[in-house]
Amino acid sequence: MANEVNTIGVLTSGGDAPGMNAAIRGVVREALANGKKVKGIRRGYQGLLEEDIMELTRESVSEIIDQGGTFLLTARCAEFRTEEGQKKGAEICRKNGIDGLVVIGGDGSFAGAQKLAAQGINTVGVPGTIDLDIACTEYTIGFDTAVNTAMEAIDKVRDTSTSHERVSIIEVMGRDAGYITLWCGIANGAEDILIPETYDYDEQRIINHIVASRKSGKKHHIIINAEGIGHSTSMARRIEAATGVETRATILGYMQRGGSPTCKDRVYATMMGAMAADLLCDGKTNRVVGYQNGKFQDYDINEALGMNKGVSEYMIHVAKNMSV
């Protein structure tokens, strides 16, 4: 049975995502409202092992809800993947009076939370990743901001692509998942959308599409390429050689992780952070907060990590029809 929680720790781990600060704020203020103490751990699991820990108050999280990134900072930690590192982390939590921990991050971060739970530390995970690749939830913190940032950038690239009558390959983030690519492909009216889940590496099909579009009078051709496929620059060279049409690659990169979070990312992140704190206050452990069918809910972390998530086949179908 989980132990009673009196002090809640919170950390952000892995890649940063807009809305993480809103989630931290949600954890802190909800926990304090429940009469608990809160401690912030800087630089994720690395900071935990280094005991980079500070007490958080309501004032500590004032004026951060509109800021991108994470004021607690984040890092990846190879040592924490070892059993020795996990035991050390649990001992440091106990030494600092932390009997409940909220981990904001992705699947790798949740795996660390799972290990801490096995060491007797009550843990709850909150999905913070722009990739939208956590299977137990329809929403992850940062996706909405990232996809809007990418969409606005692609609109700008389209303008110059049209002016120069060129092909533009725009590579967006998402690791091995194609959600940002697919959403931007539909929102930006791309002619081709390349995602890891469905791309067959048939470049000739893309070349044929470009040639046919050019013959029909189209002045530009936008290809949105997923990070999980990559190699956009070499792809652009091959397409230009095959079609004779000027082709340029633009890799949007880390700009998609930054910026002030959207309203959705602020509100949903706040709700998820507060729910994580409430779960710990109720004595729950080894849980992950998610959003499904219009509701915020929680799952067993083992169950969550074992789930698989696929891209909507209907969205892919619609995207293909929209590009014709």
Can you describe what's shown?
By secondary structure, the protein is α/β, with parallel strands linked by helices. 42% of the residues lie in helices and 18% in strands. It has helices at residues 20-33, 44-49, 83-95, 107-118, 143-163, 179-187, 203-215, 232-243, 263-281, 301-306, 313-323; strands at 7-12, 37-41, 53-56, 100-105, 122-127, 167-172, 192-194, 221-226, 247-251, 287-292, 295-300. The strands form two sheets. The chain has a seven-stranded mixed beta sheet with strand order 3-2-1-4-5-10-11, sandwiched between helices. Helix 1 packs parallel to helix 9. The chain is elongated. The mean pLDDT is 95.
Structure keywords:
324 residues, 7-stranded mixed sheet, 11 helices, elongated
Strand content: 15-25%
- Total DSSP helices: 11
Q: Provide the residue-averaged pLDDT.
A: 95
Number of strands: 11
Written as H for each helix and E for each strand, in order along the chain, the element string is EHEHEHEHEHEHEHEHEHEEHH
Largest sheet descriptor: 7 strands, mixed
Helix content: 40-55%
What topology does this entry show?
Elements: E1 7-12, H1 20-33, E2 37-41, H2 44-49, E3 53-56, H3 83-95, E4 100-105, H4 107-118, E5 122-127, H5 143-163, E6 167-172, H6 179-187, E7 192-194, H7 203-215, E8 221-226, H8 232-243, E9 247-251, H9 263-281, E10 287-292, E11 295-300, H10 301-306, H11 313-323
Parallel strand pairs: 1-2, 1-4, 4-5, 5-10, 6-8, 6-9, 7-8
Antiparallel strand pairs: 2-3, 10-11
Helix pairs in contact: 1-9, 5-6
